[in-house]
Amino acid sequence: MPSENKTIKVKSENEKIESEKVLFVEGKDEENFFEELLNYMGITDVQIISYEGKDNLKNKLEAITKTPGFSKVQIFGIVRDADEDVRGAFQSVRDTLKNVLKNNPYIKKKLKNTVVQI
What InterPro entries does this protein map onto (predicted)? Predict the structure, then answer.
């Protein structure tokens, strides 16, 4: 039986990041699924944030890097549906990450001695 709801979630863009572990999900369905899964597994230190659809990934990713508390994030996962094309979905996330990372001096500095896994 799932434990009580303890997984950290952000409800609006005005809130801050409160965890070192962030799961960036495509929409409400993924948000609800991962919240229940993590709670069931007893994992309560992951903050789930929705980027509200694949077309918003780039803008929301850029915005989240400027959200208060982002500097303490150590693990950042992205979940995206592969509705039609698995390779295309993967490439889309990968390209978005590359573009956001290369254009953000703070991220480049933070990742200087870090291994990025995709």
Answer: DUF3226
- CA 1 remoteness from chain centre: 26
Measured from the Cβ of residue 100, the count of other Cβ atoms closer than 10 Å reads 18
| 23-80 per-position pLDDT tens digit | 999 999 999 999 999 999 999 999 999 999 999 999 999 899 888 998 888 888 999 9
- Asked whether residue 95 is assigned to any structural domain, the reply reads yes
Alpha carbon distances (Å) from 16 to 31, 53, 86, 94, 114: 17, 21, 32, 25, 23
Q: What is the DSSP letter of 53?
A: S
Q: Which amino acid is at 39?
A: N
CA end-to-end span of the chain, whole Å?
Answer: 33
What is the count of structural domains for the chain?
Answer: 1
